[in-house]
Fold this sequence. Notes:
It contains 22 helices and 13 strands. It is α+β, with helices and mostly antiparallel strands. The longest helix has 27 residues, at 74-100. The radius of gyration is 26 Å and the shape is globular. The model is unreliable at 1-38, 58-85, 92-113, 123-146, 165-172, 205-220 and 274-281 (pLDDT under 50). Keywords: ATP-binding, Kinase, Magnesium, Membrane, Metal-binding, Mitochondrion, Mitochondrion inner membrane, Mitochondrion outer membrane, Nucleotide-binding, Serine/threonine-protein kinase, Transferase, Transit peptide.
Amino acid sequence: MIWFKSSYIGLIHKTITLRSPCKVFLWTQAVNENGMYVKIINRFVHHGRKILQNIREKYTSSNVIHNIKGDITANVRDKGLLNATESKQKYKNQYFLNHVLKWVTNSTAAEIRRNAAKKIIYGGRNAVPYLGFVGINLISGQGLVTKEDEIERVCEDIRSYLNNDSKLSENHSPSVSLSDLEIGEIIAKGCNAVVHAGRWKNESINLEETRNENCPEENINDDLKSKHTKLLERFHTYNLAVKMMFNYDAESNAFAILNAMHRETVPAKFIIGNVSLGDRIPFKHYSLPPHPNIVSMHCAFTDSTPLLPEAIMAYPDALPYRLNRDGSGRNMTLFLVMKRYHCNLREYLKYYKPSPTTQLSLFTQLLEAIVHLTQNGIAHRDLKTDNILLDLTLDVEMPILVITDFGNSYVNSSLKLPFPSMDVERGGNWALMAPEVKTTHPGPFTIIDYNKSDLWTAATLAYEIFGQNNPFYSSGNYKQLESHTYSDSDLPEVPNLPKPLSLLLQDMLKRDPIQRPSPAVAANVCHLLLWGPQKLLDTTQFTKKQVVEWLVTETASSILQGTSENTLWVLLRNTFLSRIRMKELENALIYFC
């Protein structure tokens, strides 16, 4: 039997015409009395796996870039993925009409729901898709799902719905060489590599797309405004960053170079071996799935070491003998082609004082990146503000954060490294090395556990993000802490933080990794502070019903917006929903009790 009230019909009719995503919350509150939030998700995603399988079968084979040479740019790729996403969204809409709607009793309510859904779904890209459909369907059913396994299934299906990114076919790897690139000035230089600005040759650049129209000048102080403007001007010509590794040891062949520098290629979408033949070298490589908070690395390839602009002055020792008689470099090396970002986190914090909301969003994105790495069996082991890049395209107050430089990373599903002798490398940043890593002594049965080491390092960087000096760096104002000797009571408190965040940082910096929260729980706490429901956070006792209702509301909002909005908050919400688990969310809510 379907429960149906005339008042609900009027409400739903009004909801269908709403254009603002914020009306989703008002609409869900109106039907809250019958407790039917989960009913729609339960029916909506009952066949979720089948939906995704059909989507993958239909679009995985078709979403392939065939003509990559000269067209491998980030702009072209983004447009291709956007078209694929729109096609998949239309396919899902049709699937809802053909498969989900049939489960509702053929009554007046169902008929109204069908007509409303069809009108909305086919009414245009900017129409609110599903609200009428969801509103009618929520009124039907027998009540809220209360069993833990069924509630967890709701979370699982929410994850499945959000994790629908298409993957490029492994059989269509591009053939790329240095001759396909136009190299510009040096962006950055370190001990192991140099980064040049770059672009693909014969590429027509749309200056309007690269210009930052959304960055109001009055919100930027003079130092950052000047720096930011200059960066954007350079982006008009060079929209890529080309990293050339310094090769002193590996033999001058692709196989030796890729094996010696394989960790640098962890985030790469493509690995090109013998660039003269266009064949990939069959070496063991772990490819990290893409994530909005991991650097976008288009490809990695080997080629002859060139004499690039400023090379003789900037890095003469890394050049081979044929280019510099005093050089020690090899004739071939590795090149990494990445999206170009505006600045690193250290520069951003130096020139600009972000608002508390921006500070929290930066820390949340950093934790989300660590969650992704941990879930995929990767420890970065060299986190610092220099290795964190920011995209300021949306706004200087809405930077998108990514982790880069995986040269010191460790890849293992268990994240445990045998440590028989001091010859085994522990990681890169000694000052910000977690205590369980720094204090481990080598032995025949000794292992180093990296499961929560990056989380500890992120907590130390929180001091810098929230406007304080990092206590594990030297400073004239206080005594520097050492990670292998400090006690929990030595840690200075970050002023003016919300209590849940202050408690979280204390737990993240516990010497004993067992006492630290998981990266997912830590990220959940930050998400709840940013955009969690006040009603849920104000109570000392929460129910799973309240939590599930909130998740369903946010999922409906995500469906509503689709690909029409590309803001930092949409990015954060979708990242959160794509990995949500009820137990981890419950553990995060404990910090608010």
